[in-house]
Amino acid sequence: MELERSIEYQEMMLKYEFAKKKVETDLEILLREYAFKEGYNPVEHIKSRIKSYERIVEKLKRKEKEITVTNILSNVSDVVGMRIVCSFIKDVYTIADIIRSTGEFILKSEKDYIEEPKESGYRSYHMIVLVPIHLENRTEYIPVEIQIRTIAMDCWASLDHKLRYRYPDKISLELENEIVESANDMLEIDKKMQRISDVINKEV
């Protein structure tokens, strides 16, 4: 029987659904409280999703792992994913601090792809947090990947994904370099807008 239809898989995915709902609710509370206290909302929008069975299988195959529930739990940390898009670069780190300082989640790992971007030019701040879900007789901790990025970073990442998804075999080295260059252009826009924001805030 295909794993997707097994009780074991369905039970696991139910827990991921619970974790998704909990992290959405808890982060909404934390970020709304910050906005109330500071008089400023750093968040433009938030999206969350649960990875499809096909994408989970694809990731396990890339890692050369057998398609089992145990391997999903051990090797796929982004079954639940959340993307927080904010206005300015400083907002990225503010939101990361809010998430890091709450006692509700356990921080498993974090990676700053803004300071150290990927070779493709990709920039974002990634955190893996363990979210407690309270079941009938126990508490389990489910991993959730949170990506935090600016509007400019999100725009570039979306366009980059579409180009690579639609034309995977047509991106030459020259075009690859142009894509990276465009990511650097976006970073300069981010830096310029951050400087303007800093000047305005000093004058207020």
Description:
This protein has six helices and five strands; from the N terminus they run αβααβαβββαα. It has 204 residues and is of the alpha+beta class. The chain has one domain: Beta Polymerase, domain 2, CATH 3.30.460. A five-stranded mixed β-sheet has the order 1-2-5-4-3. The longest helix is centred in the N-terminal third of the chain and has 32 residues, at 7-38. The model has no long low-confidence stretch (mean pLDDT 93).
Short description:
The protein is 53% helix and 22% strand. The chain is built from six helices and five strands.
Describe how the helices and strands are arranged.
Blueprint: H1 7-38, E1 43-50, H2 53-62, H3 69-75, E2 80-86, H4 89-101, E3 106-112, E4 125-134, E5 139-150, H5 151-166, H6 173-203
Parallel strand pairs: 2-5
Antiparallel strand pairs: 1-2, 3-4, 4-5
Helix pairs in contact: 5-6
Radius of gyration: 19 Å
Query: What is the CATH fold-level name?
Result: Beta Polymerase, domain 2
Separate helix tally: 6
Strand count:
5
CATH superfamily: Beta Polymerase, domain 2
First-residue to last-residue Cα separation: 64 Å
- Report helical residue fraction: 40-55%
Taken in chain order, the helices and strands follow as HEHHEHEEEHH
- Profile the largest sheet: 5 strands, mixed
Count of structural domains = 1
Strand order of the largest sheet: 1-2-5-4-3
- Mean pLDDT across the residues is 93
* SSE class: alpha+beta
Proportion of residues in extended strands:
15-25%
What is the level-2 CATH architecture name? Answer: 2-Layer Sandwich
**CATH domain class name:** Alpha Beta
What's the shape? flat
Uncertain residue ranges? none
